[in-house]
Amino acid sequence: METSTTIYPVVALRGLVVFPGAQMHFDVGRSKSIAAFRAAMNGSQTIFLVAQREIDTDDPDFSDVFEIGVTAAVRQILKLPGEDGIRVVIEGLKRGRIVNGLQKKPFLQAEIAPCPMSLSRKDSRIRCEALLRQVRARFENYADAVPDLPVDMMLTVLAEKDASKLSDYIIGNIMLEYTDKQLLLEELNPVRRLEKLCAVLEKECRILRIEDDIGDKVQEQIDKNQREYFLREQMKVISAELGDGVTAEEETQQFREQIRAVGFSEDAEKKLLRECDRMDRMSPSSPESAVSRTYLETVLALPWNIQTKDKLDIKAARRVLDSDHYGMDKVKERILETLAVRKLSPEIKGQILCLVGPPGVGKTSIARSVAKAMGRNYVRISLGGIHDEAEIRGHRKTYIGSMPGRILSAMQTAGSNNPLMLLDEVDKLGSDYKGDPSSALLEVLDAEQNFAFRDHYVEIPFDLSKVFFITTANDRSAIPQPLLDRMEIIELPSYTHEEKYHIAKKHLISRQIERHGLTAKQLRIRDDAIHALIDGYTKEAGVRTLEREIASLCRKAAVQIAQDTEKVTVQVKDLQTMLGPAKYKEDDLSLTDAVGLVNGLAWTAVGGEMLQVEAAVLEGSGKLELTGSLGDVMKESAKAAISFVRAHAQKYGVAPDFYKTKDIHIHVPEGAVPKDGPSAGVTITTALVSALSGVPVCGKVAMTGEVTLNGRVLPIGGLREKTMAAYRAGITTVVIPQGNTADLAEIDDAVRQNITFVPAASVQTVLETALCSQATPKAERPVLPAAAVKNTHRNIHNQRGNA
Prior knowledge:
By secondary structure, the protein is of the alpha/beta class. The protein is 44% helix and 17% strand. A hairpin with a 6-residue loop joins strand 4 and strand 5.
């Protein structure tokens, strides 16, 4: 069956689909479309309207539009004022299909064929009626979901009985994508069009319900924010009326003013002001606001530009140091040197000292006195047991409970950017999977880096270059080498008996009397009692145990005074009654001449000690037995000593075959205490020669030094502590390596006056001094008596200078 075609002007619509029976108006702006409408008005007043496939096509061709559209009657054309476009009023007539495109310019023109309605046999009247009811029901649901839907539209839907007209009317008046409308326009079967319309309406109803839910939630949030805003405004007014407190906006503004007043760098100031802006956008009651507030308060609490003025009076500083501590000349001189240099060069930096010494010698207390002498604020950080890097550098502020590290927390406590900071027990830092705190300290204690120390919490560089760092340690070997290189080491030796006496007399007794509520008139401790207290009740490098014993005497005296005793005088005979029997006896070590028994000297973390070495020769087959918890180095020293004795057996009256016929047992008492080191080499050698030759060793002689297979005596460390141990034990002669002669300048005056030092370059000198039968007359010995020690030290330095 042939279908007649008609030639019509064609207009491509952007995002718009016209249905039969629809009346609408729209604006036309493209020149092609305007020309088509004018041609239609000049002709049959009928035009073909079809949607273009892509709405962003500006100059559509026949390939850019759909095939099926609608012929429409042009009812009116209006010229828009001040514009080139027109406004048209049209009425859709019927569906049509483009059969042949005839013209593209000046407007589109084509042959249009009508699209007849198609019905299948399955489309019964009853089915059509059922679909009409479903469409009306779903449209009612759609109308309930869409606000402000015209009432006459609902009446039209209910009144319309024709399936094709009803579907076209509904589709043309609801909001759908133009592609969905085009699909329904191309459906020529009215019944199937109703089915598709049912699906479209159901989908739209679901979308509208979801939009309503989203809108309700958004409105609820808006209402909540409005309510919070209203309440905050009320609180602002209430606070203003009561005059107690500031609002969030005022608090943020105060932060901004404080930030600008500090004088941060440009980058730091921008970062802090951004934090203020971020705080402004948050609710004051939110957790994030509390984090920002705490962060700003912490940063502004740091002493960025607060600085104390140093006291640079050298004489006054010396008086303060001398009044607080007895001795410690080395530390005091170094502090006075620092003050003198600062007086001449105020901008000097990099003052990092490390005080190394046994416990109780006053490392921590001298730091407090230094701060007092310099007029600086004092702050102490205990590093013992710290094993987390965050303890030094802090935690990121994003973590719950985060805070700055100990360095900046101490700066906040000090209240100035140039305090004296004591890093106590730096040798006892630990490390685990959380990091190595000693590595974090590298930046802190490096004068080239600490001017921009960055804490993880603060995140802004802080200048630590003005801080005077003093660290303390008991064991120098336990300090990591990179950390050790950044510090100037000052060794604090153990106290002598005389030093302990003066410290107790000038400081400890008066302090404990005051702490226990007594007066100097109520309690007096005689000088001989102080000496007996030091010798019989303490055995330490420092004075902590001595102070505890003095405190015990004060408590005993307090009991007597509380029972109406006016005055208590502590004498030597009273010590046993008040403190119990003496813990240390003078005869703990035998100083008599004996075969195979030699007095050695050892260094420990708490000072020097006397270390006797015993050697016994037994009938046997040449076995060597070493006991006393000896370390590998000490065992090797014993083997080297035996090899030396074998090589020089006849010279010292020893049987040449002793290593075949004799078993040798070398023992160092106090077997539960581990011992190691090479400095017992000469002691073991002397004990072997004495035991194998039967010649006794002088009991008043002690020695120290490393021995080689050739019999050379090599230098050792810790000479000051070792000689103090010899002095305490009553030794009168000490054999030292020739290479340690320069170290005699560091020996205490009391030790110099009571001990004769014999420098030894070889074992021959050691044996001549120690073995009783080989001891040469005193006038012939190569000794350094007390009066000659200082002159010898001066001559050695002169020789070095001349060289």
